[in-house]
């Protein structure tokens, strides 16, 4: 892979130059207060931004947040992010109240060397996500006008063919930021020749969301451990009663075929925590998977499953984990995810947490992030990379 890096750009000198940085600042916000509940993605881009600031660049940061419909929407403003980013950088971040309008133009024009500006949410402009190449290109032209060079450090967005990710690099000298470079280096270890045994843990709610990655991984992994809501479709494929648990009926036959083809590589839960309702205070018990009552639903894997999965993980030399084992946001159903995460940290293995809910779980459960080999910032992007797909943002950097 031939991609120019941030170090290449810094070696050329960026003092006084405007550098447009595509970051992934799509952080979760509290619905009531608007406060940031997890600043992990902001912290992830600090090495790139800090290096540019230190080198005297005029740094223009752009990002999306949430899924606004191509028009300004106050609940998705990056205003709170600008404040937190300034705290972490130790210097004010100048915030433009639009993306490519009057505020953006004046904010960028007023930047001094070593200062940072943040543009308002890219998705407030329909051109960012447009399928129409002319509309997307016109928006990319406006964005590119704010930079003399472009840095992509938004790994969580590289699987999107969006203006700021795919079209802007064609208009400016472009490099990969430190985060993107690290993500690609780590994930290429998993797709190349991983040290064995190679064990993958997949959770989350739907088999359909993970089918492509399961298909891609089955030939290469030594064990595939499946938990979360998606496990119930596999259990149904074994002819078991799953009560009112999450079930994708149209995927049952697919799961049956995967089990038959897996050669025994797939491990499923042997016990689960079932509850009367999807609620934090619902009455709940642990039952064997062949004894799930018809009126109850599974919300976590049980302690025997954690023990069995942990035993498999203890033998591993390479581990990839994507998706929680249960509804970890509710304390009554967090033990499975915590148990598996702790087992991963204890294994003598190179471990990768595949972004998304798994990364959120690590932080929400108060686990030591440094005890994992790498925590990805891109759930969807990391899965698509492992599937072997071409990621538009990476392809744009290679050109």
TrEMBL record:
GO terms for molecular function: ADP binding; ATP binding; phosphoglycerate kinase activity. Pathway: Carbohydrate degradation; glycolysis; pyruvate from D-glyceraldehyde 3-phosphate: step 2/5. SUPFAM superfamilies: Phosphoglycerate kinase. The keyword ATP-binding applies. Monomer. The lineage of its organism: Bacteria, Bacillati, Actinomycetota, Actinomycetes, Micromonosporales. PANTHER family: PHOSPHOGLYCERATE KINASE (PTHR11406), PHOSPHOGLYCERATE KINASE 1, CHLOROPLASTIC-RELATED (PTHR11406:SF23). Belongs to the phosphoglycerate kinase family. Its EC number is 2.7.2.3. Coiled coil: none annotated. The keyword Nucleotide-binding applies. It comes from Micromonospora saelicesensis. This is Phosphoglycerate kinase. It catalyses: (2R)-3-phosphoglycerate + ATP = (2R)-3-phospho-glyceroyl phosphate + ADP. GO terms for biological process: gluconeogenesis; glycolytic process.
